[in-house]
C-alpha cells in the first residue's frame, strides 16, 4: 500500500548572495507501508531563477521541522540537510535521514495529530534560511501510523466457513437428466450465420433453431492461444499517424499552473482552481492559514483560529496590548478610522459570528454559554442579558469561558482600563487615540433592536469586570472618559491585553 500527497507552491525569495532567486517547488511526500513501515518521507523540489531557468548542480541548505497541533505548534522533530540539485534542477531528500537537531523521527506518534511540516531553505547552501513554508500533513504520514497493525495481541478465532478449493482439473459435469431437452442441441450439422455489424442497443437474440449442435461447443471448443506482448519493443507511432504532431512538439505549455505577471507572485490550489497571491515585500514572512499562504510583516502575529493579524504594543503603564480591536483589519490611523473599528461583542460571548456588524438579530435568549448560532441576541426586559440566567463567570482570565482573544491574551479588567485612562494626555477621545493603543470611536450595538449607534463620536470598550447584572466598560467622547456600567447585551468593542 502506498499513499501519496501532492502539493504545488510557488515562492518568492529575497536577495541572497547578490542574486534574486525565484523558486518553483513541487513537493511529493510519500510513506510506504509494506511488511514493516519505513521511518522516512520523501521530499522533492524543482528550483528555478527569476528568468524561469533551472538552478542546476547547486548545493542548497534545508531545515525540516515536524510541528504538532498547529502551524505554530511544538516542533517534535527537526533535521537539516544539504542536498544538491541535479541537471534538471531537482532536489530530492528523505525526511528522517538528515542531521537530527531535535527529536526522533521513529518515535513520532502520528495518531496524536494534527501535524504540520515546516521547510526552511537557504539557496546559498548555508543555514541562513530565508524561505519558509508550513502546511498541514493530511493522509501521507498516517501511513506510518498504520504500522501499529503489524502486531496483534491475543488470539484470532476464525468464524468464516471453511472453503475447499475447487479442483478445476475435473471440470463441471452436467448430466442429460439436468437438461430437459438436450437432444435439440446435439445435432452435427451446424452452419454459422453470416455476422453483420452488431447493434449493441438491441442486444442479441439467439433462437434454438440457430444452434444445431451445442454439443460440439461444449465438448470440442478450444480457445485460441494468446501470445504475450513483447513490451521491450515499445510502440512506434509515426508522424503521419498524428494529424498535427508539430503543435505538441513546438507550442505545448503546461496548463496546470497559470503564468504570473509579477516577480514573487504565487499560485495555490483553493480546491477548485489556481489562485494568485500578490508578491510580498522585503522583510515579510510567509505563513499558512487554513491552507492559504499569506504574507505578513516580520513583527506581526496571526491567530490560527480566527485569522486575526496584529502587532504587540506596550502602553504607558508597561502592559502589552494588541495594537487593534478584535475584527479590525489594521491599527487605527485616526480616531474615526472605520477600518480600525472592528467587531462588537456582547459581554461574555465567544467569537461565533454574532460580533460581526453584518450579523442578523434574534430575540430568543440563550440558556447556555454557547448559543449555537451567529445572531446578535436582542433583549427587551430586565436584566437585559443575552443569557438566561446570567453567568458572571464568563470572560474571566486567559482560560476563561468564551475568551475571544488569541492564545495568551485576555479581556482587560476595569482596573487595567482605569490605569490606561490615567496615563492619557487628555481625558477624552483625543487622549484615547493619542495613547499607544490608538483607541477609536467605534460606537456600539443597541440591545433592543440590534442597530448601531454613536459610530464616529463615542468609544465603548468591554472589560471582564461585572456588577450586579451589569458589565463595567471604558467609555469616552470628545469631552470625557470614564469607567461606566451597562447591560451585558450591548455590543461593545474588544481590545485584548497580554496575560
Per-chain topology:
Elements (H helix, E strand, L loop, with lengths): L1 E15 L2 E14 L8 E6 L14 E8 L5 E8 L8 E6 L3 E4 L12 E8 L8 E7 L4 H4 L68 H6 L25 H6 L15 E4 L4 E4 L7 E5 L2 E5 L4 E2 L6 E2 L1 E3 L5 E3 L22 E2 L14 E2 L13 E2 L31 E2 L3 H10 L5 H6 L9 E2 L6 E2 L5 E9 L2 E7 L4 E7 L3 E2 L4 E2 L1
Parallel strand pairs: 19-20
Antiparallel strand pairs: 1-2, 3-6, 4-5, 4-8, 5-7, 8-9, 10-11, 12-13, 14-15, 16-17, 18-27, 21-28, 22-23, 24-25, 25-26
List the main descriptive attributes of the protein structure presented here.
about 500 residues, mainly beta, Immunoglobulin-like, three-stranded antiparallel beta sheet, 5 helices, about 30% strand, disordered N terminus
Q: Could you characterize what this model shows?
A:
This protein is mainly beta and 499 residues long. Among the domains are: 2-148, Immunoglobulin-like (Sandwich); 299-499, no CATH class. Helix content is 6%, strand content 29%. It has 5 helices and 28 strands. The protein has helices spanning 142-145, 214-219, 245-250, 414-423, 429-434, and strands spanning 2-16, 19-32, 41-46, 61-68, 74-81, 90-95, 99-102, 115-122, 131-137, 266-269, 274-277, 285-289, 292-296, 301-302, 309-310, 312-314, 320-322, 345-346, 361-362, 376-377, 409-410, 444-445, 452-453, 459-467, 470-476, 481-487, 491-492, 497-498. The protein has a 5-stranded antiparallel beta sheet, with no helix packed on it. A 3-stranded antiparallel beta sheet has the order 24-25-26. Strand 10 (266-269) and strand 11 (274-277) form a beta hairpin. The longest helix is centred in the C-terminal third of the chain and has 10 residues, at 414-423. The protein is elongated and about 110 Å long. It starts with a strand and ends with a strand.
Amino acid at each position: 500500500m502506498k499513499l501519496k500527497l501532492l502539493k504545488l507552491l510557488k515562492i518568492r525569495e529575497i536577495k541572497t548572495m547578490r542574486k534574486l532567486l525565484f523558486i518553483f517547488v513541487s513537493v511529493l511526500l510519500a510513506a510506504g507501508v509494506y511488511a514493516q513501515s519505513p521511518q522516512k518521507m520523501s521530499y522533492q523540489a524543482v528550483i528555478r531563477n527569476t528568468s524561469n531557468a533551472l538552478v542546476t548542480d547547486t548545493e542548497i541548505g534545508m531545515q525540516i521541522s515536524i510541528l504538532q497541533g498547529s502551524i505554530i505548534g511544538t516542533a517534535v522533530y527537526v533535521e537539516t540537510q544539504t542536498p544538491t540539485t541535479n541537471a534538471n534542477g531537482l532536489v530530492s531528500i528523505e525526511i528522517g535521514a538528515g542531521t537530527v537537531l531535535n527529536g526522533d523521527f521513529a518515535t513520532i506518534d502520528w495518531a496524536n495529530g494534527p501535524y504540520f511540516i515546516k521547510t526552511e531553505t537557504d539557496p546559498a547552501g548555508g543555514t541562513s534560511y530565508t524561505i519558509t513554508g508550513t502546511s498541514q500533513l493530511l493522509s501521507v504520514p498516517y501511513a506510518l501510523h498504520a504500522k501499529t497493525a503489524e502486531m496483534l495481541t491475543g488470539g484470532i478465532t476464525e468464524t468464516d466457513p471453511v472453503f475447499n478449493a475447487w479442483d478445476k482439473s475435473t471440470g463441471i459435469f452436467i448430466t442429460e437428466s439436468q437438461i430437459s431437452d438436450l437432444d435439440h442441441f446435439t445435432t452435427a450439422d451446424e452452419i454459422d450465420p453470416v455476422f453483420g455489424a452488431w447493434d449493441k442497443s438491441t442486444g442479441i437474440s439467439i433462437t434454438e433453431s440457430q444452434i444445431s449442435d451445442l454439443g460440439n461447443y461444449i465438448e470440442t471448443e478450444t480457445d485460441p492461444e494468446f501470445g504475450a506482448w513483447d513490451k521491450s519493443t515499445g510502440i512506434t507511432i509515426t508522424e503521419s499517424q498524428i494529424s498535427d504532431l508539430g503543435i505538441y512538439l513546438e507550442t505545448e505549455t503546461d496548463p496546470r499552473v497559470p503564468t504570473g505577471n509579477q516577480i514573487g507572485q504565487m499560485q495555490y490550489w483553493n480546491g477548485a482552481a489556481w489562485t494568485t497571491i500578490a508578491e510580498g515585500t522585503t522583510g515579510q514572512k510567509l505563513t499558512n492559514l487554513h491552507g492559504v499562504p499569506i504574507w505578513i510583516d516580520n513583527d506581526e502575529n496571526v491567530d490560527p483560529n480566527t485569522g486575526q493579524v496584529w502587532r504587540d504594543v506596550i502602553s504607558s503603564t508597561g502592559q502589552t496590548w494588541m495594537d487593534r480591536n478584535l475584527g479590525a483589519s489594521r491599527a487605527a490611523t485616526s480616531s474615526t478610522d472605520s477600518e480600525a473599528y472592528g467587531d462588537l461583542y456582547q459581554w461574555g460571548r465567544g467569537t461565533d459570528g454574532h460580533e460581526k456588524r453584518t450579523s442578523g438579530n434574534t430575540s430568543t435568549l440563550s440558556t447556555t454559554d454557547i448559543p449555537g448560532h451567529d445572531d446578535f441576541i436582542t433583549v427587551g426586559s430586565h436584566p437585559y442579558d443575552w443569557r438566561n440566567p446570567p453567568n458572571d463567570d464568563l470572560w474571566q482570565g486567559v482560560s476563561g469561558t468564551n475568551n475571544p482573544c488569541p492564545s495568551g491574551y485576555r479581556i482587560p479588567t476595569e482596573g487595567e482600563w482605569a490605569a490606561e485612562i490615567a496615563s492619557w494626555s487628555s481625558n477624552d477621545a483625543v487622549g484615547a487615540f493619542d495613547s499607544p493603543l490608538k483607541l477609536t470611536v467605534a460606537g456600539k450595538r443597541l440591545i433592543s433592536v440590534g442597530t448601531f449607534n454613536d459610530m464616529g463620536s463615542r468609544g465603548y470598550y468591554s472589560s471582564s469586570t461585572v456588577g450586579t447584572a451589569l458589565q463595567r466598560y471604558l467609555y469616552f467622547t470628545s469631552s470625557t472618559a470614564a469607567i461606566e456600567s451597562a447591560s451585558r447585551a450591548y455590543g461593545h468593542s474588544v481590545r485584548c491585553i497580554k496575560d
